[in-house]
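Bench log. Compound arrived from synthesis this morning; before running ITC I wanted a structural hypothesis for how KE4 sits in the protein. Inputs:
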Amino acid sequence: MADFFTLISRSFSIRSFLACQSVTMSPPDSHSARLFAAARRSIPGGVNSPVRAFRGVGGEPFFVRRAWGCRLEDVDGRELIDYVGTWGPAILGHAPEEVVAAVRETAGRGVSFGIPNPLEVEMAEAVKARVPSVEKVRMTNSGTEATMSALRLARGATGRDFVVKFEGCYHGHVDSLLVAAGSGALTQGRPDSAGVPEALASLTLVLPFNDFDAVERVFESHAGRIAAVIVEPVPANAGLIPPLEGFLQHLRDVTARDGALLIFDEVMTGFRVAAGGVQELTGIRPDLSCFGKVIGGGLPVGAFGGRADLMDCLAPDGPVYQAGTLSGNPLAMAAGLAQLKALDKVDGFRRLEELGARLDRGVWAMLNRIGLEFVFHRLGSMFCLFFTEESVENLEDARRGDTALFARFFHGCLERGVYLAPSAYETGFLSLAHDENAVDRTVEVMEESLVAALRG
Ligand code: KE4
């Protein structure tokens, strides 16, 4: 397993951490500040998704006026090199001409029909061609809908109620899965959400990621009663945490032995780390998979698919109901297909690996120069820098990171023109629009920001 990603973790002794001072805020008279004040009057927390609120790093979010290539421009004219990439979809970069043209051309023929359109068939065939474990696939409008639907399908197909997930994995804001969740839930310090009935949450069994024994034990204690194990095959919502060698195969073996289903949540990694996601890199075939992000080209999309005998349990053929007014809508299909085709055309994954490796080397050399102990994980174009002196194999390890120092580092980078994810529990993304100059500049900025953050 270790050969399918570059795991960089090096131990240095941390010379000193100094308390972090308050972070920088947008100037009160900035356009972003005024917009955020207005947003807070009408939108909960001023944002339409919590992780955007900068609660993990302090300060207030900026507002974007436009985005192109690997860059964003905020409403105050500040230009930034972007490593959030709208949380993964922007694998070609922002406003790629192929995607914009496809959306424009498709929109001219209507933006939604609520009746089958040819692009839905083309998208389903494109997913199947890239992900061999997917014999049938259904489109949704978000990753959350995809995982929610896959879970209901697993329970409906097996007649079992329990599900297993892992601490720190985030599968969208599905009631059953907002238990010990990562990403925004973790950033807010509330991995379990209010509003999820205990009766429901108690059917979700939560284990530490990479814990072989815990998996064995839960299947001993709940033999024959677990519908599915759902896992991010490479968790990217508690930072980026690679599976230990054999762990994913262990999940495959244990679930197969028990008659439970294995669900790979590849909403983040699908079509991102390889055309066929982590399952292409590892050769492990889950029973069901969830997708999103890249296959929508930045438009609202999700998908879930897998074994035909399971997928045929879905309405209208089967007893498991699942639906969506805009599922498979022509704009998202056109955008996603254009993105997938563009990736194929330029052998995108080779280029993304080149850029990722360059960033890798740069960060590694930077850590050497500063003499810091950090753990840097990377998988293709996905990366994460943990501010901790121990190896990171699960959420507990990731939470050892110095989030206060990260906040200071984040704002230092932002001030110097580099936008990283506003949380220590997220993953950064390179795109095909990044180039050697952008990567090299980023490493310079990271070093300046790290030195400044350590000085306090
Ligand atoms: P959406 O419902 O946000 O489209 O997808 C949910 C989801 C499911 N599974 C995985 C592995 C995911 O990473 C996500 C969503 N990712 C986060 C970023 N860590 C979305 C950002 C946000 O919540 O605003």
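What the model suggests: Confidence is low (pLDDT under 50) at residues 7-23. Residues 216 and 254 are 7 Å apart (CA to CA).
ITC booked for Thursday regardless.
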